[in-house]
Inverse folding.
């Protein structure tokens, strides 16, 4: 185990690390939802035990519809037959929020953070609470969109980040959203889970996402506003790698942390902590293996 990893494992989550905070970043390629969920759950356990430091997972999912704790099943409007035909899985999970879609071209961020290590800006709190944490995630997304020339903002009473049609390619292509009748479109969804101060789940930013998949659901249970992507706003496809680096950089700014990009889970965990130790492509193959002991080291 390297000295860097040993130093990460020794982190005490009870201490404030605002000035010298270190967030490790792992970009895992494309993972099916079940595999990514199990990985998150194991990393959360390790973070609670202070055996790893805060880590940000960046990845894409194969096509999947997820239902949060507050989801209405009726918001999945496609039939089971159509979902099968489109190759879309359906999962219930313990994040907040309603129904959303994940798939290729969408960049998903799963922060596994101990919020007790991040001081709060609120006078009555010492460390981050759930509302302030979600606001910071929104700020990361707003800054990331701005890096690519996309004006985005919050909407009072709604969670997530919304792109303005003003001066966007979407506005120029769709006259119904220009002028007085123009409305914001959701470009990123947020749904989190916090257990004993440690976060999981996170946000999904539509980069090059095929937005037709959102017609299978009522996204987040909201019928009054459309969904968009960075590609639609700009009228061109973007490099997911460039967007990933922008997200990482903005996490560093918003959470006052240094960002350390790691090449693999091995770099974070070593080889004996009971989590998947394969490359992303192998993770997907192992998930289909009936022998679970071949998946968990």
């Amino acid at each position: 185990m390297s000295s860097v990893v040993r130093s990460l494992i020794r982190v005490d989550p009870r201490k404030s690390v605002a000035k010298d905070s270190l967030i490790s970043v792992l970009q895992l390629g494309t993972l099916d939802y079940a595999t990514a969920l199990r990985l998150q759950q194991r990393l959360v356990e390790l973070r609670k035990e202070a055996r790893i430091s805060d880590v940000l997972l960046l990845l894409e999912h194969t096509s999947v519809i997820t239902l949060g704790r507050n989801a209405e099943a009726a918001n999945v409007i496609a039939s089971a037959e159509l979902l099968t035909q489109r190759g879309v899985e359906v999962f219930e999970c313990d994040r907040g929020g309603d129904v959303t879609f994940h798939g290729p071209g969408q960049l998903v961020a799963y922060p596994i953070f101990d919020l007790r290590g991040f001081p709060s800006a609120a006078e009555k709190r010492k460390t981050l609470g759930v509302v302030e944490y979600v606001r910071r995630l929104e700020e990361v997304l707003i800054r990331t969109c701005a890096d690519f020339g996309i004006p985005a903002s919050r909407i009072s009473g709604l969670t997530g980040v919304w792109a303005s049609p003003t001066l966007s390619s979407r506005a120029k292509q769709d006259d119904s959203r220009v002028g007085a009748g123009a409305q914001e479109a959701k470009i990123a969804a947020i749904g989190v889970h916090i257990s004993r101060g440690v976060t999981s789940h996170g946000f999904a930013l539509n980069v090059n996402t095929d937005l037709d998949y959102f017609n299978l659901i009522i996204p987040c249970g909201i019928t009054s506003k459309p969904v968009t992507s960075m590609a639609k706003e700009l009228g061109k496809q973007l490099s997911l790698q460039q967007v990933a680096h922008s997200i990482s950089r903005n996490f560093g700014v918003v959470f006052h942390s240094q960002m350390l990009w790691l090449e693999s889970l091995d770099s974070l965990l070593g080889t004996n902590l009971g989590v998947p130790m394969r490359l992303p492509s192998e993770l997907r193959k192992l998930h289909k293996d009936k022998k679970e002991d071949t998946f968990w080291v």
